[in-house]
Amino acid sequence: MALKVVSPDVMHKTEAGAVALGLASEGEVVIEGRRLLQAVAQRAPGARIAGLLVQAMAPRGQEVIIGATIDPTFGRLVAFGMGGTAVEVGRDVTFSLAPLDREEARRMLDRISGAPILRGVRGQPGVDHEALVELLLAVSRLISEHPEVSEVDLNPVVVGERGALVVDARLLLAEPPPAPEPSPTQDEILREMTRLLRPRAVAIIGASAETGKIGNSVLRNLIDGGYRGRIYPVNPKAQEILGIPCYARVEDIADEVDVAIFAIPAAAVIEGMEQIGRQGIRAAVLIPSGFAEVGRPDLQRQLQEVARRHHIRFLGPNIYGYYYTPDSICATFCTPYDLAGPVALTSQSGGIGMAILGFARSAKLGVSAIVGLGNKADVDEDDLLTFFAEDRATTCIAMHMEDLKDGRAFLEAARRVSPSKPVIVLKAGRTGAGARAARSHTAALAGDDKVYQDLFAAHGVVRAPGLRDLLEYARALPMLPTPRGENVLIITGAGGSGVLLSDACVDEGLELMAMPDDLDLAFRAHIPPFGAAGNPVDITGGEPPSTYRATIELGLRDPRVHALVIGYWHTIVTPPMVFAELLVDVVEAGRRAGNAKPVVVSLAGDVEVEAAAALLFSHGIPAYPYTTEIPVEVLGAKYRWARATGNLPAAPA
Amino acid sequence: MALKVVSPDVMHKTEAGAVALGLASEGEVVIEGRRLLQAVAQRAPGARIAGLLVQAMAPRGQEVIIGATIDPTFGRLVAFGMGGTAVEVGRDVTFSLAPLDREEARRMLDRISGAPILRGVRGQPGVDHEALVELLLAVSRLISEHPEVSEVDLNPVVVGERGALVVDARLLLAEPPPAPEPSPTQDEILREMTRLLRPRAVAIIGASAETGKIGNSVLRNLIDGGYRGRIYPVNPKAQEILGIPCYARVEDIADEVDVAIFAIPAAAVIEGMEQIGRQGIRAAVLIPSGFAEVGRPDLQRQLQEVARRHHIRFLGPNIYGYYYTPDSICATFCTPYDLAGPVALTSQSGGIGMAILGFARSAKLGVSAIVGLGNKADVDEDDLLTFFAEDRATTCIAMHMEDLKDGRAFLEAARRVSPSKPVIVLKAGRTGAGARAARSHTAALAGDDKVYQDLFAAHGVVRAPGLRDLLEYARALPMLPTPRGENVLIITGAGGSGVLLSDACVDEGLELMAMPDDLDLAFRAHIPPFGAAGNPVDITGGEPPSTYRATIELGLRDPRVHALVIGYWHTIVTPPMVFAELLVDVVEAGRRAGNAKPVVVSLAGDVEVEAAAALLFSHGIPAYPYTTEIPVEVLGAKYRWARATGNLPAAPA
Lengths: 653, 653
Fold this sequence. Notes:
Two copies of one chain form a homodimer.
Chain A: E1 2-6, E2 19-20, H1 26-43, E3 51-55, E4 62-71, E5 75-82, H2 84-90, E6 93-97, H3 102-111, H4 115-119, H5 129-145, E7 149-159, E8 164-166, E9 169-173, H6 186-197, E10 201-205, H7 214-225, E11 230-234, E12 240-241, E13 244-245, E14 259-262, H8 266-278, E15 283-286, H9 297-310, E16 313-315, E17 321-324, E18 329-332, E19 340-347, H10 350-363, E20 367-372, H11 381-390, E21 396-401, H12 407-417, E22 423-427, H13 432-442, H14 449-458, E23 461-463, H15 467-476, E24 487-492, H16 495-507, E25 511-512, H17 517-524, E26 537-538, H18 545-557, E27 563-569, H19 576-592, E28 599-604, H20 608-618, E29 623-625, H21 630-644
Parallel strand pairs in A: 10-11, 10-14, 14-15, 15-16, 19-20, 19-21, 21-22, 22-23, 24-25, 24-26, 24-27, 27-28, 28-29
Antiparallel strand pairs in A: 1-2, 1-3, 4-5, 4-7, 5-6, 7-8, 7-9, 12-13, 17-18, 17-20
Helix pairs in contact in A: 3-5, 6-11, 8-9, 11-12, 15-21, 18-19, 19-20
């Protein structure tokens, strides 16, 4: 028998010493009952005791945990994890949005690290998966269909070969959260964001003739950047600025203005918003800081109230502004950026925005847009995703974020966009310490990181582990064709690189193709007899360009090979630029012949390899000097995206 | 009762269905005994059955595994891990060299992920650690003192609050391995390596006048590199090469030559070694390939035999040669390198050697030596460690390796060197797939990676996860002063960087200092009221240079702060170079005042931050643009080194 103290004041029975197990006789129950009551009196003084519960011992089996909770970012979630003491240490748990469907419930069972134990190891039988699926669905219904339920905790659930038994359960009830406000339609959001990011006319509130002032930098950048729309500086003290007629007040502008860019102190912004609202301007870019981030959430709320009243959508406050290169718009006080390309980048923080700008310029990264989100008092990531989804200039979206205002809206937008355009996210505040810093920075509650990890993966979002990864993924992913299968082949001139590239492939969860005999023979025809067989194909170091060419052509041509990782070794026989040019030639010929496959390159050599890498990048081939990891990491990110978005069959082809 | 089938042919009883547990009566034993015998007959047909073993059930408790084995690289090892099905999935196990001492046995219990379970979680009591320590020591004696024992497996061991019970045990016996040859003394190795790496006179066997030939490149590099010793080209077909008199045969050189550098085909090398041996030359650099790596281990064995007979120590074969900058020696066919500095780098692979060279040149990394090890038919990592330990030019050693010929010798050398000079290792072939590639490349058996991980850490070796990490660690570690405690403080101009830097600190196992109230007040005196309190110190983005200066000075001065991570945000108010110069100034003043602390910098900004990073690096301050991860990674590596080598008290100061 099992014996438990029942008390409304004891939530965690084991910790309170309120549980005794495996009692065999009435006498034991009596003795243990006394002991338990003493233990509880000691560990939880004053706890009200409702009684003692005697139950049959649960059958032996695997302990798991099933639960549900309301997450401040994502709303109602279902959780599943391994139970017992192991879960305390390993935290082997996974989350999913409620309500679940049966397929997702099954995937949850497979997603935890302990999944092999559930399937059965060392000759032991697996557990009853369908019984767990039914419980997950029941818990999902409980949290979804009963607004007063705020938490469900079935812990432990003992599951065996047949059936699952809930040994202990608790439910928490709470005041149901208010119903969310009705969201605008996708079409409305798209229209509003298009107005905001592609304005035909802009007003600069606080334009200035004084160099160094934000209102001067913004105006100068719009002009120097080559913006072809109409520009209206607004400043009561100037007749004209930088050769453009200036207006004393917004009301004086006769034209229809799409966007007002604010470059005035925080204290004046709310009145400014009233003015543009009265003029019918429906979009604003709020550069000024001085709101929630400096401890003035009241000002920020006023801002939101005015904007709502006038139907104004706005970016910020507390941002650097934004770039939209297809229209040559640099609506920012930072330096102009004009290298147009397929990547849209956003950042919540201004510092990270500057790092994006610097990296992009240094790496010659073509961008469609760079957008600062700052305090996100209005426009946030899902609004931008809706715009970028339809934006023909954008094929890849990379976002830095510290929190999400509405996790569900973001996931829904990401799920729509990501199959056609990779969505890459750097979620800051991943760790406990990081999350604390996020709170003090933006007063935002950063949710448990595992929740983000599971939900991002389930909705096709590619997560970048760090800032440099975000930038490298953004640079490489739009270049790489979508792989048609899991077979990765390494071709290397340096055996040593081959080993490290193999290590990196395993780290990234990539499948090193098992080399078919006929293909092995075909490779052997091109390489010295002592070159290594199999995968990596080691062509050895002293080989001429023709060997690189022949083997890479073979890899591109053979339909069983789905992606190539090339390890180049700088030698006198095949210098870096000769290699780079031949690789461009071979890859472009392959594309023309319909063999577009992801090709990434690691370059081991003297400094000349840097120019070779730049040449390869300029032809759409991601190539990196002095590293065997980064090329494989970007390929790994492409594969994660392809798998998560259904662009690659789940089973290896 | 527990019931087991006893058979010499059944090694893994559970898998064979040969175990029944929890039997309560004679009847059950009889029934289950029949069932087990049937199961074994089915799953292991033909297995000889010695009988059935009836035992009392083990008491409830935590299952652990204790074992010992002979590793091809490191010899006799003791293993400890969590038992039960969890170990099959999580592989929560740790290794140590046998024989163990009591302290190391205790550390093993703390090193596994399940250590908290052993200490007791959720109010449950911990297990009897001393009982496990005694078992570990017993197993250690068994494998150390009985050469015929090749494997010990106590699995499971059930451990409770008092005592531990070995439930099942197996021992494997084998022919004891031959006793190792007597090793030379440290003094001998040092003398030999000094002769090899700091020769007063070299002969180039196969010197050539023809550009592009290896024998030409080596001679040219020695001359152009500024080598001040005597150079003797050897080539029967030339009178002089590059203005230096040439000798037809080694025997014709009247001088005492320290090193012969071979640039002739593999087939001629063995005869050449005989000749130099007869001449009394005691060191050689064997550039040629064509030995074990091309499937000719026989040639390599001949080489070793000739060398042993003539007492010749040699590098290679199959290498690019080596650089030793204090003597301006470029004994290699690669391009010369002359930026002298504190880092010695070695690589097993030529490709990785070229990547080292290129990165070093690009990053302006000062090196003392770059050495190719290739097939390691003679000289290997522990020989070089012995040399670098005494080499005054070297303060940090970075090594790329695919295998170790003698793991114990390496660990002993590393343990001697690492407390005074960090030893950083990139161990290739870490993963299963990587290990396979290593075998085909060097015919070397790459051991289980977990063994390397545990033994490296226990001997003070800093492991680099990838090639770029090896290079970044090598660049930064010699610059960073040793921290005097665990308190890391982040000071940042960009709140967004602060969050990412915090994430990175947690990832690297760094301790974010809990901010004392008085110090918090002191920081607040310098920053705006809305700047974030605590750690990170967020000075906010619009601040002038004086704010960076005051806060960083405060962090350097306060003895409770042990390391600083600085997040810079590019603004007009504090441009990149202004920041870099003030930081150099503050850090150098701190050093003069005795406040030498590790300071690392993340630079978020436009491309001007690249020049700022270069300036900071040139003053010994590791600084990185567009990344919040790398500065924290190098600081983390410094901390790992300091903790593992006793340079930092184990408990947070």
